[in-house]
Amino acid sequence: DCLPLLAWQMVLIQAADSSRTVDPVLAAARGADLYFHQISYCSGRISLIFLRHIQLGYNLLALHWLGPKTIACLDTLEVLHLSDVRTNKEMESIDLSNVGLMYN
Fold first, then answer.
1. pTM score, two decimals?
2. Is residue 44 helix, strand or coil?
3. Could you tell me how far CA 33 lies from the centroid of its own chain?
């Protein structure tokens, strides 16, 4: 019923040893499940490092990063949810059902 969604963003990652690196973070979602993975490249190999899984209270239709800390999720009822990725706190939700979104 739901297509997989992918979006990535360059994010400053702080490791347990206090070192910092800027790596791409991949947000992958399907249905109400949203996963975040850090993408790293070392010694000619690309690897995905699991960061977090979030179970949402709605099914996703679209997903887009708005910066390194904010992600926009459009649900199947056409409500746009703006969330802080680090705290998983929803900052705002906007009902777009009256806008007349076009899909192709």
1. 0.87
2. coil
3. 10
Digitized pLDDT (tens) for each residue of the chain, 104 residues in all: 677 999 999 999 887 888 888 999 999 999 999 999 999 988 999 999 999 999 999 999 999 999 999 999 999 999 999 999 989 899 999 999 999 888 77
CA distance 44 to 42: 6
- Here the tokens at position 80 are 């746009």
DSSP secondary structure string, 55-100? E-SS-EEEEEESSSSEEEEEETTSEEEEEETTTTEEEEEEE-TTT-
Q: How many CA atoms lie within 13 A of 25 on its CB side?
A: 26
What pLDDT is recorded for position 34?
Answer: 97
Check residue 18 and give left, alpha or beta (phi > 0: left; psi -120 to 50: alpha).
Answer: left
Q: How are the residues of the chain apportioned to helix, strand and coil, as percentages rounded to the nearest 5? A: 0, 65, 35
User: What are the residue boundaries of the structural domains of the chain, listed by start?
Assistant: 5-95
Environment class of 50 (CB within 10 Å of its CB; exposed 0-12, middle 13-18, buried 19+) = exposed
